[in-house]
Amino acid sequence: MNYKDLKVTFKMNFALDEAQASIRAARFAPELTATERNKS
User: Fold this and answer.
1) Among the four residues 4, 7, 13, 32, which has the most C-beta atoms within 10 Å?
2) Which tens digits make up the pLDDT trace of 3-30?
3) 3-class state of residue 22 by DSSP
């Protein structure tokens, strides 16, 4: 694997981690309505 591949992999993993964190935050935020939780 070369440096360029590592950069792309890092960016994809970072984006995935950010998305998962947002999903967890929305899912476990009791003050949100069901509609707000399911917005993308």
Assistant:
1) 32
2) 788 888 888 899 999 999 988 887 887 7
3) helix
Token pair 């792309």: residue: 8
CB-neighbour burial class of residue 26 (10 A; exposed 0-12, middle 13-18, buried 19+): middle
Tokens of 30: 């009791």
Query: For residue 31, which amino acid is it?
Result: E
| CA dihedral sign of residues 20, 24, 37, 31 | negative
The per-residue pLDDT for 29 is 79
Rounded Cα gap, residues 34 and 29, in angstroms = 10
Give the CA count within 13 Å in the CB-facing half-sphere of 39.
6
